[in-house]
Specification:
Elements: H1 2-17, E1 21-24, E2 27-30, E3 32-35, E4 38-50, E5 53-62, H2 69-74, E6 79-85, H3 92-106, H4 115-124, E7 134-140, E8 144-149, E9 152-157, H5 160-171, H6 178-184
Helix pairs in contact: 3-5
C-alpha cells in the first residue's frame, strides 16, 4: 500500500509540474533533459549499491535509444550521465576515488594520456558532495565533457578519448556497477 501511495504521489507531481520523471531507486530522475540545444531522453537508469545500501542512482541520456555499451562510449554525439547521490556514505573523496579507479579499469591501467584531464575532474568537484546532490557529466559533440554539480556548470574537459574512457566507467567491461550498467542500457 505504501509503494502504491508513493507511486501515485509521483504521478501527481509529474502531472502538476508538466515534467516527466521516473522513479529510480530512492529518487526520481527526469525522463528528458536538454543540453546545448539538444534534447536527450533517458536510455535507462539504475542504482549503485554496496552491501544492500543504495549509494547513488544513475541515468544515461541519449538522442536515440541504444543497448550497445561500446558503441555508446565511442559515439561522437551529445549524451549525458546523471548521478543522484542517495546515501550519506558518498562524499566528495569517495566519489572522486571511485571515478579515478573507474578510469584505471576503463583504460586497463593506461591513464597516462588522460592524467591531466582526470585531474580536472578532481579540480572541478572541489566542493563537498552530499546526499541529494546531482552530478552531470555531459558530452557535447565537438566541445567535450561538461561537468555540472546541482545544475551549475563547473568546467569542460576536451577530447573524445576522455569521453570514451569516462563513459566506460559505467558502460565498460568492468563497470562501477554491473546492475547500474544493465539499467543504463535499458534493462530496468
Amino acid at each position: 500500500m505504501k509503494q502504491l501511495l508513493i507511486t501515485l504521489a509521483l504521478l501527481c507531481s509529474v502531472v502538476a509540474t508538466g515534467y516527466a520523471q521516473i522513479p529510480v531507486g530512492r529518487t526520481v530522475m527526469e525522463y528528458e533533459v536538454e543540453y546545448d540545444d539538444t534534447t536527450l531522453k533517458m536510455n535507462g537508469a539504475g542504482t549503485c549499491s554496496m552491501l544492500f545500501i543504495e549509494l547513488y542512482s544513475g541515468g544515461l541520456y541519449l538522442q536515440e535509444k541504444s543497448s550497445d555499451p561500446i558503441a555508446i562510449a565511442y559515439d561522437d554525439e551529445t549524451m549525458a550521465i546523471r548521478i543522484k547521490i542517495t546515501s550519506k556514505l558518498i562524499k566528495r573523496e569517495t566519489m572522486l576515488s571511485a571515478i579515478e579507479e573507474g578510469f584505471e579499469k576503463a583504460t586497463e591501467g593506461k591513464t597516462g594520456p588522460l592524467k591531466d584531464r582526470i585531474a580536472k575532474v578532481r579540480e572541478y568537484y572541489a566542493k563537498p558532495i552530499s546526499k541529494g546532490d546531482l552530478l552531470e557529466l555531459v558530452y557535447v559533440k565537438g566541445k567535450g565533457v561538461f561537468c555540472y554539480l546541482n545544475s551549475k556548470e563547473l568546467g569542460v574537459i576536451e577530447g573524445q578519448d576522455f569521453k570514451f574512457a569516462l563513459f566506460k566507467i559505467w558502460l565498460g567491461e568492468n563497470p562501477a556497477s554491473e546492475s547500474l550498467k544493465k539499467g543504463m542500457l535499458g534493462d530496468f
